[in-house]
Specification:
mainly beta, five-stranded antiparallel sheet, five-stranded mixed sheet, Arrestin_domain-protein, transcription, Thioredoxin-interacting protein
């Protein structure tokens, strides 16, 4: 920072050796320098560098909206810079900075070993923050400080065996209308692995069944869950990210997703090792049911920093993990023999459609992004004309026809 003349210092700033570096990881060395330039003769007694990193949660909650806060420390470092390397010490132990000259002292420290740091984070009710601070002591005056933050990103490899294992689950729900049974709906889904990185596509295989009297809509979305813990109380925020939807499923029908994709957007990796802040992700597959609560199925996701290396990166331990999920995914084995979905009505020639008045059938309300979809519509059938035959038919004349012609 640049100081005014009343402080007798023109420049007091801290900088890192590699200003273009975006982040550091465990075991990396953080280095830089502190620069001083006096506007007029100025005495100082010491210069030290401190580095710190902590997670902090703070929010208001409870009936009385009481403020809750908690901190956890992950980095603490302090180093006294040797001013005598460039300045002479006076009899009173102070050092004199001459005006018009720039002084610089270097510093460096090593970040803790893997497992002792967590990645930087900034959220609504908490953060994980790392910084280096320079403190300049002056005789009979308050110390001056300047600081600079740096990012920490701990590597998270999605090629770990536990993250290469598939995830599968199934769920069903009985639907009622005025307490009268109205059939049921069900979801059975699985994904090939749990670990993904930004920009990758998640392939979803799912089967949806609808035996109730209503038209249901299958959808899927990536959900982020941010949890903040303070003295035994937890604040949770959920955020809906990328989403996809399928075709409407009428009563008595089912639908299949075979490799339907949803892309992982740009987002922060999962934060799992912090004591008071968690960032977790899930793939939520659900059915929107008019007049009833959604049927929701969640499959866990871990967003990492080291992307998937391909099929060859799977280890032999995968077979045992896949086998352990056989009870959940057993019903999915029949998907290959299940007939493919019927063609969409959008593929029918325009001449076969009716441009008459439309009557709203139901609204596909999903409490947010889908409010403007306008619902489903049925069309009046009275103006329907069948398509012309693919070939022409010539009817042989009958005797009665001949008599008519002769007249």
């Amino acid at each position: 920072m640049v100081l005014s003349a009343v402080h007798k210092l023109r420049v007091f700033q801290l900088g890192f050796s590699d200003p273009g570096r975006s982040f550091y990881s465990s075991g990396d060395k953080v280095s830089g320098s502190v620069q001083l330039e006096a506007a007029q003769p100025c005495r100082v007694t010491g210069l030290r560098i401190t580095a710190a990193g902590c997670a902090r949660v703070e929010y208001r909650g409870g009936k009385n909206h009481k403020s809750r806060s908690q901190e956890v420390e992950y980095l603490k470092y302090e180093e006294e810079l040797r001013l005598e390397e460039q300045l002479s010490r006076d009899s009173d132990g102070s050092f004199l900075l001459q005006p018009g000259k720039t002084y610089s002292w270097t510093f460096g420290f090593e970040l803790p070993a893997p497992g002792r740091l967590v990645s930087s984070y900034k959220g609504k009710f908490g953060y994980v923050r790392y910084y280096a601070r320079a403190v300049l002591d002056r005789p009979s005056q308050h110390a001056l400080q300047c600081e600079k933050e740096f990012e920490v990103e701990e590597p998270l490899d999605v090629n770990r065996p536990d993250l290469l294992a598939p995830a599968a689950a199934s769920i069903q729900k009985k639907v009622t209308c005025m307490f009268i049974p109205d059939g049921q709906v069900s979801i059975c889904a699985h994904i090939d692995r749990k670990g993904f990185c930004e920009g990758e596509d998640i392939n979803i295989n799912a089967k949806f069944e609808n035996t109730c009297s209503r038209i249901v809509v299958p959808k899927a979305a990536i959900i982020a869950k941010h949890s903040y813990l303070a003295h035994g109380h937890t604040k949770v925020l959920r955020q809906k990210l990328s989403a996809v939807r399928g075709n409407h499923i009428i009563s008595g029908m089912c639908d299949m997703w075979q490799g339907k994709t949803v892309r992982v957007p740009k987002l922060k990796p999962s934060l799992l090792d912090c004591d008071i802040i968690k960032v977790e992700y899930a793939l939520t597959i659900y059915l929107h049911i008019p007049g009833s609560e959604k049927l929701i199925l969640e499959l866990p996701l871990v967003i990492g920093t080291i992307p998937f290396g391909g099929v060859g990166s799977r280890t032999s331990s995968m077979s045992s993990q896949v086998g352990s999920m056989g009870s959940q995914a057993g019903s999915l084995s029949s998907w290959a023999s299940f007939p493919s979905s019927p063609p969409s009505y959008s593929n029918i020639h325009r001449d076969l459609r009716v441009d008459g008045p439309r009557t709203p059938l139901l609204h596909d309300y999903d409490g947010g992004e889908d409010d403007d979809e306008g619902g489903l519509f049925m069309r009046a059938p009275e103006l329907y004309y069948p398509p012309p035959p693919a070939y022409s038919e010539v009817r042989q004349p009958t005797p009665s026809d001949s008599s008519v012609f002769c007249q």
